[in-house]
Amino acid sequence: MTLIPNNKELRPLNHYATRYRQLNAEEIRARTRVGIGDGELILRFLCQTVRISAPTAAERFFTVPELPNTEQILLLRYLLEGRYSEPTGGFLAFREFPKAAVYNTTFQGRCVKRFTYAFADNIGKWSELMTRLGADAIFGFGDAAFDWALLPGLTVRFILWEGDLDDAIAPAGRILFSDNFVTAFSAEDLAVIGDITISRMKAAG
Q1: How far apart are CA 56 and CA 181, in angstroms?
Q2: Residue 169 above 80 pLDDT?
Q3: Reading across the β-sheet that carries 40-45, which strands appear in turn?
Q4: Can you tell me the mean pLDDT for 63-88?
Q5: What sections of 59-160 are H helices per DSSP?
Q6: Is-above-0.85 flag for pTM?
Q7: Do residues 95 and 156 lie in contact, with contact meaning Cβ atoms separated by under 8 Å?
Q8: Cα separation of 201 and 98, whole Å?
Q9: Nearest to 110, CA basis, from 203, 13, 198, 171
Q10: Which of 180, 134, 129, 114 minimizes the C-alpha distance to 153?
Q11: What mean pLDDT do residues 127-140 have?
Q12: What is the pLDDT of residue 145?
């Protein structure tokens, strides 16, 4: 397993890696619909192909590409506990997920405000970088909006409003999740997903 040094997530990563090695690849595939080939699980993560060594051959673990520990942990949690279900076309705010209401204020500050303040002052530039990242522009939402597939069928929707200084209208943003995230991730995971996606946007900008 390749680990990024000096990272506070090292201990939980080892914990989830140990649990992962006890699983059966076919059970993971049936539950999450990830692909399997040549002793690896294969999935699309934020428009990149990620290969993960199957549990019985996990000495190499995440083989392509190199991922930060937080992203490795998120994917392991999905493989360990998540269940894929078909989306119905609806999107949910963070507070609408089970057990999320108590964390909603934290999510708004940690993710929504961070997203808004980072990109609402230059929506054109944000739109360009989202296109580079492989997200899909959608219309009829805010001043700009994109759907970004975290995993196939599991979509995060980002919406920005530029605001208007002359009319004292503040910029605003929203982060929504396709309704099938309910079976795939916990509320805590959704906050991590917000962090990960915004960090990738900022790195691309």
Answers
A1: 28
A2: no
A3: 35-37, 40-45, 48-53, 62-64
A4: 90
A5: 69-81, 104-107, 114-119, 123-132
A6: yes
A7: no
A8: 27
A9: 198
A10: 180
A11: 97
A12: 98
- Alpha-carbon Rg for the chain, nearest whole angstrom, is 18
Q: 95 and 112 in contact (C-beta within 8 Å)?
A: no
Measured CA to CA, the distance from residue 183 to residue 86 in angstroms comes to 10
87: Cβ contacts below 8 Å, ≥ 6 apart: 153, 154, 155, 178, 179, 180
Locus of tokens 């392991």 = 76
Token pair for residue 75? 């994917």
Per-residue pLDDT reduced to its tens digit, 77-125 = 999 999 999 999 999 999 999 999 999 999 999 999 999 999 999 999 9
- Give the span between the Cα atoms of 165 and 58, in whole angstroms: 54
Query: What tokens appear for 120 in the block?
Result: 């609402």
Sheet holding 91-93, edge to edge: 91-93, 172-178, 154-161, 144-151, 136-138
Domain spans of the chain, in order of start? 10-81, 91-204
Q: What is the pLDDT at residue 60?
A: 52
